[in-house]
Amino acid sequence: MSSSCTFCLFSYLVCLCHYTLTLQWQGKQSKIYTYTELTVTGKDVKACKDQKGICVLDTDDCGSVSEQGSDTFLNTSCRFLKNKESFGCKWTYLNDVKTKMIHSFIFTRDKGFTYCPEILNELSAFNLIIKSKDPHNKIERFSEVYSITIEDIVQFPRPDGILVDATETSLNVTWIKGWKSKKCLVRYKQSTMNEWTEEEDSEMFHVIEGLQPCSQYSLTVACIGEYGMLSEWSTQFQAKTLEGVPTAPPNVSYHVASLDNTFRTQKLLLVWKALEINVARGVILGYEVAYTSTKQAALNKITTSNLKAELEVAPGDYNITLMAYNSAGQSPVRHVRINTASHESLPGVRGLWASTEVDSLRIRWETEKAAVNVSEFAIEWFSPGLASSQWKRVNGATFSTVLTDSIKQLETYTINVYPLYESLCGPSESIQASLENGTLLDIVHLECANVTKTSVTVRWVWQRKANGTNVLQYRLALSALDESETKSFTVFPHQCQHSFYKLRTNAKYSVSIYGDTKSGNFEKANIEFTTPLYENDEIIKVAVPIVLLIFGLGIFSVLSRTIYKDYFFPSIANPSHSLIGRWLLNPFHEKDAVMRVLQLEDFSMTNQLIEKALMQMEHQKFSEKEVADEDMMYLPDNSAVENDGAENSETSPSLTEYVDLPLFPDNFGYVENCYIPESTS
């Protein structure tokens, strides 16, 4: 019994869940909206037997009129086309299943119809029910009852034969109307716009004024009679206004650069902005640049379709004029006076790089922080396959943009970026890029330029690549081999070296170049180095003072020894080293008993004798033997003195130096010769 109850309860839960899921599925099932239109004429309307108040399109509908309408018929509108005597309705049919439906009309009127085929006329009025039948599922649905008065829904035929006569700023539109109309509406818009503008006119023509010259417009016309509805809009007609003379000259900026080191030839770069559409008033065919020097009256002219011009000039003052022209005429002239010898300069951009985005090129750049404010940037790109350069202007606060115009596969583009500030233009930064490879630059020859104990400088070379990986950017990374921390930053074509500081001494490091792509990154180059423990200049700073100190001590020791010896141990003269000293030390002079005294008065000479009183010292050369004999003769020898004293006493020594004595007077002589007795002691 309990098992039977359990089975019944389980079955009930299953049925309940199934029912709930079914309701949820039906509630979540999306509705299908079908736009439906049905048009009939009087020949299609049939009468029902024994039912004078009903006319139908299918006699099977005579007995199937429902009093309650369905909400599946939305946005229903009907009209009566006067020229075709036809009646038609449009509505949106809402269905749960996408299937082909059969639609029909049921006309009813309380007072009945006299003749059903004639109920569709301008004076008729009736009630309308729309019937839709699903032949597959045999389901019929009826709309609510619509009250119809033909006079209110009469629609005149749309105008035909539209003609347009264009001027620079207006379009003169004429049309043909088949029926008498009360008024017509002209709707127009510029081809590049989405909003329509409507103007009303009671005639068969209308003039649209205030248009832009050389602009494409779309227009259409619809009319309405004295009663009824507005006709259908005519087929859209395309018209273009004529060109007009440009109303303003282009704004120009300039840059001066030297072509050689002598500054005798300079390049004058002129860059100008394309005219706005409302100013150009047509298609600009080209630009005319004329320039003259204040020193020379000759006028030089060039014509170009580009938005820049490069002139080779000599230093000096120049008057430059610029104008634009189209098929209607020339614009006013822009006058610029430039002194190429003395001019202001605007720094260029740096870090220009291009990467691929679908079918376009995204470029980015940067400027120097110390640079003056830049009002805008001018971007130029061209390729051998383009007839002329393409240009784009961006705001000075923007440092990236996307190039989409004329960018094609298998083409190499040269991209130039010019910074602009009022009338000044900076030098261009240029790169080459393609959709397949991005920027056509690659990094090679990574090497260490200088290594110290706390820093390293690495450098590399940029070279052009023909093809390869599409690199979004290159990164330079420094990492210590014994640490996981890595320092990295992005490098651009204007950078060829970089220095890392605050490194550890006597440590191993690695420097790598990585290329970032959409799928990841790859290592382009890698080098390793070790920081030294001491710097070369530190070694020199330590060694030089030590060497100088040793050298100074050596000099001091030599000088101090000489000075010390002179002051504390002076040299004592040795008489035996002098000839006269040896003569004086000769003991034989003691045996000379005769004293010879000179009178000092005799040495006083007259003036006449002064000139002859000359003493001359003559050095005579003696042989070594003679000198030795003299030395033996004058050296005291005790033994000789003792043995041969008497013999040697008779002999007087001779001078070894020859002396020319002065001339003495005749009365000069010895005063007295006396005998000096020998000492008895």
What does this structure look like?
- By secondary structure, this protein is mainly beta.
- Among the domains are: about 120 residues, Immunoglobulin-like; about 80 residues, Sandwich (Immunoglobulin-like), CATH 2.60.40.10; about 90 residues, Immunoglobulin-like, CATH 2.60.40; about 90 residues, Immunoglobulin-like (Sandwich), CATH 2.60.40.10; about 90 residues, Immunoglobulin-like (Sandwich), CATH 2.60.40.10.
- The chain is built from eight helices and 45 strands.
- Strands 2, 3, 6, 7, 8 and 9 form a six-stranded antiparallel β-sheet that branches. Strands 28, 29, 31, 32, 33 and 34 form a six-stranded antiparallel β-sheet that branches. Strands 20, 21, 23, 24 and 25 form a five-stranded antiparallel β-sheet that branches.
- It is elongated.
- It starts with a helix and ends in a 6-residue tail after the last strand.
Strand-helix topology:
Layout: H1 2-28, E1 32-41, E2 46-48, E3 51-56, E4 73-81, E5 86-95, E6 102-108, E7 125-134, E8 139-142, E9 146-149, E10 154-155, E11 160-166, E12 171-176, E13 183-190, E14 197-201, E15 205-208, E16 216-224, E17 237-240, E18 252-258, E19 266-272, H2 277-280, E20 286-293, E21 300-304, E22 308-313, E23 317-326, E24 329-330, E25 334-339, E26 350-357, E27 360-366, E28 376-382, E29 390-395, E30 400-403, E31 413-421, E32 424-425, E33 429-434, E34 438-439, E35 441-451, E36 456-464, E37 473-480, E38 486-491, E39 497-500, E40 508-517, E41 520-530, H3 536-568, H4 579-584, E42 594-596, H5 607-610, E43 616-618, H6 624-634, H7 638-643, H8 645-649, E44 658-660, E45 673-675
Parallel strand pairs: 4-10
Antiparallel strand pairs: 1-5, 2-3, 3-6, 4-5, 6-7, 7-8, 7-9, 11-12, 12-15, 13-14, 13-16, 16-17, 18-19, 19-22, 20-21, 20-23, 23-24, 23-25, 26-27, 27-30, 28-29, 28-31, 31-32, 31-33, 33-34, 35-36, 36-39, 37-38, 37-40, 40-41, 42-45, 43-44
